[in-house]
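User: My collaborator sent over this chain with a note saying "see what the structure looks like." That's all I know about it. Can you take a look?
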Amino acid sequence: MRLTGVRWRADALACLILVALWGGFFWRFLTPVAADQLSLAEGDFSGQFVAFGAYQAARLWAGEVPLWNPYNNGGLPFLADTQAAVFYPPRLLTIALTGLSREWTYQTLEVEMMTHVLLTSLLMYGLVRRLTAGARGSAAGALTGAIVWAYGGFMTGYPPLQLALLEAVSWAPLILLGVHEATTQERLRPRWLILSGLALGLSVLAGHPQTNWFLGWLAIAFLAWRIYQRRWRWTVFLSGATLVVTLAAALAAVQLLPAAEYLQHTTRITYGFEAKRNGFPVQDVIQVIFPRVLSVWSPLYAGIVGAILATVGLWQATRDRVFWGGAALLALLLSFGGNAALYGLLVNLWPGLSLFRGQERAAMVIALALSVLAGQGACALFSLDAARAGAIRATLRRGLLLLGLLTGFVTIVAFVLWLGEATGFNAEKLGALAFSALVAWLAAVAVLWLLRRPGDRLRQAAVVALLVFDLFTIAGDNLLAEPIPPGERLKQPDVLAVALDDPAVPPQRVDGQRGVLANYGTLWQIPDIRGISPLWLDGPYTVIGQEFPNPLAWELFAVRYVFTDWQELPVPSTIVASGADAYGPVNAHRLTDPRPFALLMADVWRVEGDANARAVLAEPGLNPRRTLVLDVSGGVALPEGLRATGSATVTDFAPEAITIMVRDNPDPAVLSLALPHYPGWQAFVDGQPAPLLRAYGALSAVILPGGATEVRLVYDPWTFKVGAAISIVAWGGLALGSLWLVGVRLRRKDGGR
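Assistant: Without extra context I'll predict from the sequence alone. Here is the result:
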């Protein structure tokens, strides 16, 4: 559809307003004045995403693909951890732009986060603009929907800290826009579904599978709804859905295949219903009107003005209202998890639902649906003629009066309880209730004033301004930020220098129970056996777990330094440095006799399966330095005459390639390695492939023939190579197809002159 000059001006003005609002919301993150600066509170954002991004950037700047990460959890497949987002295009752009300075900072990732908020607000504007195309209030309605989406309780709460979630959900409006545009003509338009597939693929590469699951099903459901409305054949739906899902999977195959393999070897695969059933308490539904009362975040809050407009969107005969209302209701019921019946009924019936925990993340769909409905509701109100406005004004007056009385009554009751010093009622919660009451009454005045002259731009602006006031006030507290300049974040504790300055090869492993913390082993490149990644390899987790002190883990994972506030450890050690971290004093203990990374052994206890290996490790008389617990369930045959008279020394260590020299060992032996046993690692003994065996139910071992001199370990997973090949073909095909389409359009344009 050709855009008129008036429409172009309306769209340009709306986009400028969104940019201005974005700058106003985040100005304290962007200002160069240190005294005014805010930064996101340390937690998941810093402990995972800043750390992962720093490692990813350092490896890519060096021209290396970060397949393996030796710096947390005893070692794990970095690319396969979806939240690392190794090949997410915007992350690659961020790394490229910072490549000249070779400096990865806290603010670098904050800027990436903020850019996605602006991006998704503009995409939501485009979606609602197209959903309301032709209506007089379309531009203002689309602006309203974009504001509700970008600055509502969901997007300004947990997602900025859980960056993978925010970046994955940012593409939601574009996914749905492609589906909408594909179904607006008499025949399905595949090129728009290709756009949906591209957006879904970008979402998958951003690295939050649960969000991708919700968005994939939402896109399929929206496509089914649109095709049902047009009474097209079911084969059209099937082909369209297949195109979207297949393209997205192909574009993200470089991430999906390694991630699917990784999942099979993590603790997550063993989670049962009780571990996955968590969701909102049912009472959290009051967040729709009363934010900041029951929890730190208020993801169900779309603003009181936004809720009113969404209700209007459902009430008036707005396009697709049944779909959006149904999506919001279904997502709300799912978000309760095991606190309501629906999740338990569907968990084993709905493909993929049983893979994820934290069912409250369905709030993403609720927020998305409410934003669309609010935009459509605003458009409906702004497009009313005088007669229609008068007809609905009385009904709205009653509803708004009831809302004002309800919020006022609740505030008064809370005030009385607060005066009586009732438990649970404090000034902060009372202030939140009072704010809701204030906005409810202001909204009543603004909406009823609007309905006297719905087409008046000033009155429309007043409603939108009240919405901004409402959302920005709540979002200011919802967003966990502190008045700390980002440059002052993540100061490396001095006590860690003893490990960082140790010249040994490989870098000496540590137990960073204190001092290192979170995933900062990855940030500072200290090989830590701990970490906060939600995806632990099952074997290492069983050995390391959360227990402290853990001498068995120190032994099997070749730990040399232990950072703790303890003055003495249960094994011989010496305090070689003292300092402090964010929690207080820290001592650096150097173990007197740490196990080497590679150790020749001859005494082998043969078991079948990890369960038996763990049972043997629990034997009180077992000395794991002397006895190797080896899994022989695959038919492993040990040579006769095992003897360990020589030595094994690591001479070269890189994340995906390790070289070990063996000296003075003329007889067969078994080389025990403090390396997690994981598919993709390959062993070569004197240049010849050798089986990599599983030891202690978690680690690796190699059988050495007599006289062996060199062992080479290489991490070269087939999942990455096959996934990369598929993605290269998909991205290349998409690029060539886009160029061909542009060429066709140019030829048509030239032919029409």
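A starting point for your reply to your collaborator: The two ends are 19 Å apart (CA to CA).
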